[in-house]
Structures are given as C-alpha cells and as structure tokens.
Amino acid sequence: MKLIEKTTNKFTKAEEEEDDGSEVFQSIEVAKVDQSNVSPPPPSADDFATPLVEVSAAGDELNLIPLLNFAMVDNGIFRSGFPDVSNFSFLKTLGLRSIISLCPEAYPENNMQFLKSNGIKLFQFGIKGYKCPPGLENEVWLHLWNSKCQKEGSYTNTNSKTSEPFVNIPDHKIREALKVLLDEKNHPLLIHCNRGKHRTGCLVGCMRKLQKWCLTSIFDEYQRFAAAKARVSDQRFMELFDVSSFKQIPMSFSCSSS
C-alpha cells in the first residue's frame, strides 16, 4: 500500500520570491509485514533477574531463593552457606533427609522447626571458624601460625611428624561427618557451614580424595568457592587427610570407580 504524506518545503528568502505558491507532495512506500512469521526478540538479562517462583497447593506464589554458595556436589549431596528462613521454600524442593552442619553454634529455633516439620535429621559437627588476619597473605599467615604451634607444642597432625596449623579443622570431626556423608540412607543431604566456603570445602575435598580425584582438581573446586579467601592451611589439611581407613564409597556416587 502507499501512504501519501503532505509536506511543506522551507525556502530561503530568495527562493520564496520565485515560489509560485504551489504545494509539494511526497510519496512514501510502506511495506506491510506479516507479524505471525516474526520471531520474538531474544530474552534480556533482566528477564532472569527475578527469583524462581513456585505455586503452592493453595495457589499462592512462593519465591524460591537458593542458599548462599549453593551447588550440587554429587548424586543426592548438596553444599551451601547457612540456611536462612528465606531459603526454606527452596530447601523443600530438594527433598532432604539430612543436613550436616559444621558450625558450633546452637541451631536457630526457626531452622529446627523447619527440620522437624519436614522430617529432616540434623547432624552437627561443630568446627570453629577462623579468619586470616587482614593484610597477610596465606603463605605468610601459614608460616606464622606454624611457628606459633611449634613453640607452644599444642598440636601435632597424626599424618605428619611436623607441627601443622590445623587446630581449627579437627581431623576426627571431619571423619565422623564423612561417615554420615557416605551413608546413602541419609541422602538427599545438604552440607553447610557459615558461608559454604572453608569448612564445607574441606569436607567436600576429603570426599573427593575417596573418589580418587587428583589434588589439582580438589584444590580447583575448593578455590572456586573460597576465591580470594582460599587458605593454604585448608589445602594442606585435605592433602594430608588419610582416607585409607574408609571403605569403598557407594557406587551411586559419580567417578567412584578406580
């Protein structure tokens, strides 16, 4: 079809004197587009900014907010930071049977009520968190910490003849937590500490040793969550952790064959 547009040209003063007063018309070709054959525009980043939404049996919308540093570790095993009330709807979708908490503090009452109402068993292995003093690189802090332990003679790792700065990662608690982790009767299971980085990373790293992962891959996974706060002491703990006393891990775990 054609659309006729009426326009009035502008002239200079000299040209206006020569203008005979006639009007100028311009013909514009317009194409008619069949919208049924046009693909919708690709989604933008804003389309994914809202949290997942679930509709309850009552028809109410529930926001599914994942936990801090949430990730799947293996079949029926997940990891994260400390669960908050806002994460409860998301946790329900996992169908958890058990939670391994590596924090020493008493579990919040709201969390205990959630576990009870959903039939989730809590296994708590309290391991105190610690922070590298600000301004010190891991290697420097490790050297100072190791020197302090050697002077005090307060700790000797059973896997090494030298004093090691692993006082904040009790070997026996990691072993007990690992036994719970390997028992498929406890799956699906969530492991968490405060932020899901260091203590959780050490337990997962020890499990990876049972799966016969190489140390490079174990450390890569640990550093992916710890990022700039990765600790040499944690990696040394995983390196020296002895898995020979554990039986073969369940075949349902991935990469479990030798």
Textual characterization of the structure:
- The chain has 258 residues and is α/β, with parallel strands linked by helices.
- The protein has a domain at 71-129 and 168-242: Protein-Tyrosine Phosphatase, Chain A.
- Helices cover 31% and strands 16% of the residues.
- The chain has 8 helices and 9 strands.
- It has helices at 13-18, 88-92, 109-117, 138-152, 171-182, 198-210, 215-226, 232-240, and strands spanning 2-7, 24-29, 52-55, 61-64, 71-74, 77-80, 98-101, 121-124, 189-192.
- The strands form 3 sheets. The chain has a 5-stranded mixed sheet, covered by helices on one side. Strands 1-2 form a two-stranded antiparallel ribbon. Strands 3-4 form a two-stranded antiparallel ribbon.
- Helix 6 (198-210) packs antiparallel against helix 7 and helix 6 packs parallel to helix 8.
- The longest helix is centred in the middle third of the chain and has 15 residues, at 138-152.
- The chain is globular and about 45 Å long.
- Mean pLDDT is 76; it is low at 1-18, 45-50 and 152-167.
